[in-house]
Amino acid sequence: MSANVETMAYVGEKPWHGIGTQVSEELMPMEMLKAAKLDWKVEKKNVYFEHEGTYIQADTKNHVLVRSDNQKVLGPAGPDYVPFQNEEVIDFYTKFCEVGHMTMETMGSLNEGRHVFALAKLKDYFVVKGDDKTDAYLLISHPHEWGKADKFLFTPIRVVCQNTLTMALGQNNKAYRVPHIQPFNSDIKLKVEEALGICTEQLNELKVSAEHLVSVQYTEKKLQQYVATLYQPELIKKKEKNLLGNFRPLADDVYTAVQRQPRIKASHGTWWEAFNGITWYIDHESGREQEKRLESAWFGNKATVKREALSLALEMSK
Q: Phi/psi of residue 52, each to 5°?
């Protein structure tokens, strides 16, 4: 296991990233937090240096973030930074799980604890073309790093291939963000709950998009243009006619992923299949290390590429 993944717990079948420890599906959020070995705290401490046998405070304003269980220094922190503890953020799920609106799916720690995440499955889902099911999830990104905010993301996952697509809970296609400038209290939780109210609306919007994409066949020329626009746009700018013959290895790999991905017969040759070829490649094949692939696909630049791929597929399928 790479050092990028420290601990992880999951319920049900082994996740697509292939790492972690299986736990009972009956665990509530706080129980899963302990199973995932996330029951530690983060403290903001002063920085000292030793001079002639005496410890002197190095900086009266700035601090460092330290893990309570192993005294690992996670990084610097400014004077206004407020640490959010794992248990108080993960506890956000508890009341939803208690009433049966969510069930915990995955929880873990990346990069020595600098990035904690938790994924819960909602009861909502949609199906296109008979048996092509997409489930709905809520993903919490909980960093212990100065300058980074906690994020709450609506995350649909297509069952047949476990492809993920993070979607906005806030405005301007961004996650709902909670900066570390005040305690993670009941007022903050209420605002996040209000943002959650649009999850069903977003899932319905994605269903409409999926039903359109699965109803329209792509042409070979259009598929090549789709991949080139996302991964080698200079070919489009140059108005290159022989796109496939000029694909670099990355673009060529993405292009063939449309055929390599797990496929449902009803969606063969459709823009839904083309779009999912992109998300399959990002989630399952891009990059050298699967743990870093997980982090980038959910939280990093590759999550943005997925959203761009969906918008472009809708545009090109008109």
A: 55, 45
Residue with tokens 């400038």: 181
CA distances from 212 to 125, 158, 203, 208, 256 (A): 17, 16, 14, 6, 23
Residues β-bridged to residue 151: 141, 177
Residues 6+ apart with CB under 8 A from 56: 48, 49, 50
Q: What is the pLDDT of residues 14-42, one digit of tens each?
A: 765 566 789 988 899 999 999 999 999 99
The span from the CA of 159 to the CA of 272, in Å, is: 14
Distance CA 102, CA 105 (A): 9
* Beta strands at 54-67 and 73-77: parallel, antiparallel or unpaired: antiparallel
Asked whether the CA dihedral 13, 174, 209, 232 is positive or negative, the reply is negative
Query: In the chain, which stretches have pLDDT less than 50?
Result: 1-3, 170-173
What φ, ψ does residue 192 adopt, rounded to 5°?
-65, -40
Q: Which residue, 213, 141, 218, 128, is CA-closest to 177?
A: 141
Supply angle C-alpha 95, 99, 104, rounded to 5: 70
With contact defined as beta carbons under 8 Å apart, do 280 and 121 qualify? no
pTM, full prediction: 0.85
**What is the per-residue burial (b if ≥16 Cβ within 10 Å, else e) of 278-313?**
bbbbbbbebeeebbbbbbbbbbeebbebbeebbebb
Spatial separation of the C-alpha atoms in residues 108 and 176, rounded to whole Å? 20
Burial classification of residue 24, based on how many CB atoms lie within 10 Å of its CB (0-12 exposed, 13-18 middle, 19 or more buried): exposed
Instruction: Count other C-beta atoms under 10 Å from residue 254's C-beta.
Output: 24
